[in-house]
Amino acid sequence: MMKKVAAVLLSTMIGSSLYAGNYDTGSKGFLGLEVGAATVDGERFGGIFHEGDAVEYGIRFGAQSDEWRATFAFDYFDSSSDDQNVEKGFLMVDYFFFNSDSEMNIRPFIGANIGLINYESTKVDATDFVYGGQAGVVVGLGESIDLDLSYRYSLSGSERVNSLGSIVFGLNYLY
């Protein structure tokens, strides 16, 4: 099931980012990687909820202009010491509310996310929707590279997962 969801998300990401780059002359497509410190509050064996911490990593595709950014991201979280494993697929929309005129283009943003997760633990396997928000800052390093630091928080529609939180560092190549 999760492989099919990942394939659909990947196809959608690639297609929409390529199309978005041609849609508006002011927007650019991007491809990036992200890594973060994540916390997952989910059910473990016996109905006991546990908040597990681990590193998450993923890929991202999207398009951005001077004011908006739309991103598809797929992240993987595996905390073997806490017996939690999560695959996450997100659609995120961010609004840049300030653009600096310096050489390092610094742009803080706020946004919303919606997505699908697959959560696994001992005797627990749940797939459901998540929704939430994020805030952070993007630093432009030249014409083709952006650094991204953000905090992402999402709530789950599942009875097996309460919430997901991440401090995420991303590196984007703009094309």
Brief overview:
The chain is mainly beta and 175 residues long.
* Poorly predicted runs: none
Beta-strand proportion: over 45%
CATH topology, which one?
Porin
Major beta sheet, strand line-up = 1-2-3-4-5-6-7-8
Strand-helix topology:
Blueprint: H1 2-23, E1 28-43, E2 49-64, E3 68-79, E4 84-96, E5 105-121, E6 124-141, E7 145-156, E8 161-174
What keyword list fits this structure?
175 residues, mainly beta, Porin, 1 helix, 8 strands
Task: Tell me what the structure shows.
The protein is mainly beta. The protein has a single domain, classed as Beta Barrel (Porin). The chain contains one helix and eight strands. It has one helix spanning 2-23; strands at 28-43, 49-64, 68-79, 84-96, 105-121, 124-141, 145-156, 161-174. Strands 1-2-3-4-5-6-7-8 form an eight-stranded antiparallel beta barrel. A hairpin with a 2-residue loop joins strand 5 and strand 6. It is elongated, with a radius of gyration of 17 Å. The two termini are 32 Å apart. 35% of the residues are buried. The model has no long low-confidence stretch (mean pLDDT 86).
